Amino acid sequence: MKAGIDIILMPVDYREAVNAVCEAVRSGEISEKRIDESVMRILRKKYALGLLKK
Known about the structure:
Strand content: under 5%
Distance between the termini: 29 Å
Structural class: mainly alpha
Number of helices: 2
Low-confidence stretches: none
Mean pLDDT: 93
Order of helices and strands: HH
Helix content: 55-70%
Shape: globular
């Protein structure tokens, strides 16, 4: 996430990955705004590809 990626693909331990991102946000290492921007980019792309129900 800090390197600019929007999604973590296939982590070995899903819970550990989620906890690490949450802790990075809590500590201020990654801003909540940065997470929100990534989520919006992912949702826009999924919508554009027809992967989300309208």
